[in-house]
Amino acid sequence: MSGPVRLERMRWWHVEQLMPVERELFAPQPWTERLFWSELGQPDTRHYLVALAGDGPQAQVAGYAGLCDHPDEAFVQTLAVAPPAQGSGLGSRLLVALLEEAGRRRQRTVSLEVRADNAPAQRLYDRHGFVRTGVRRGYYAGGVDALVLTRRA
Ligand SMILES: CC(C)(COP(=O)(O)OP(=O)(O)OC[C@H]1O[C@@H](n2cnc3c(N)ncnc32)[C@H](O)[C@@H]1OP(=O)(O)O)[C@@H](O)C(=O)NCCC(=O)NCCS
């Protein structure tokens, strides 16, 4: 995956393209296509972005991310960068774009859940001002805890 990567609003036709990345990164509990479509069907409260490398039909999904706008806080629903594109700042770019959207929606609090054993993601969130505010014991497959992280603007 090479060349410039651009961020766009995620559309229904991106879902099929991103599923291989979803399955690779989030096995054994990937989201289904149906779940992505359900999220995209709620544009008032959801903001999903896709990162595309290349142009036209050749464009490849380098990453994606989504935000849910709850009444009293925003929530990072998902954040993913395809393995060949990791470590070059795309995860940060996607997260910053979601935080900016939360700001536009006048949300001062943004939360998310991350696996307790996912150190790279925790470092990314730490760099962007998230702090640990809770734990959901055994939330993920295999009994792995979810850490609840929160950022207050
Ligand atoms: C977590 C995840 C989204 C991070 O994405 P990413 O694009 O690799 O993130 P970034 O590149 O912004 O930052 C990652 C590292 O690359 C480094 N980096 C950033 N830009 C860089 C550049 N231009 N050159 C070299 N390294 C760079 C960062 O300093 C950071 O270093 P660290 O590991 O010491 O913290 C990605 O690893 C991923 O999709 N993981 C699997 C799914 C997942 O865990 N999602 C989160 C669920 S809560």
Describe this structure in words.
With 153 residues, the protein is α+β, with helices and mostly antiparallel strands. The protein has one domain (5-152): Aminopeptidase (3-Layer(aba) Sandwich), CATH 3.40.630. It has helices at residues 12-26, 33-40, 90-104, 119-127, and strands at residues 5-9, 46-53, 60-69, 74-81, 109-115, 131-136, 146-152. It has a seven-stranded mixed sheet with strand order 1-2-3-4-5-7-6. Helix 1 (12-26) crosses helix 2. The radius of gyration is 15 Å and the shape is globular. The termini are far apart. It binds coenzyme A. Coenzyme A binds next to strand 4, helix 3 and helix 4.
Number of strands: 7
**Could you name the CATH topology?**
Aminopeptidase
Beta-strand residue percentage: 25-35%
CATH homology superfamily: Gcn5-related N-acetyltransferase (GNAT)
- Counted by DSSP, the helix tally is 4
Can you lay out the helices and strands and say which pair or pack?
Blueprint: E1 5-9, H1 12-26, H2 33-40, E2 46-53, E3 60-69, E4 74-81, H3 90-104, E5 109-115, H4 119-127, E6 131-136, E7 146-152
Parallel strand pairs: 4-5
Antiparallel strand pairs: 1-2, 2-3, 3-4, 5-7, 6-7
Residues 25, 79-81, 86-92, 114, 118, 120-121, 123-124 line the site of coenzyme A (COA).
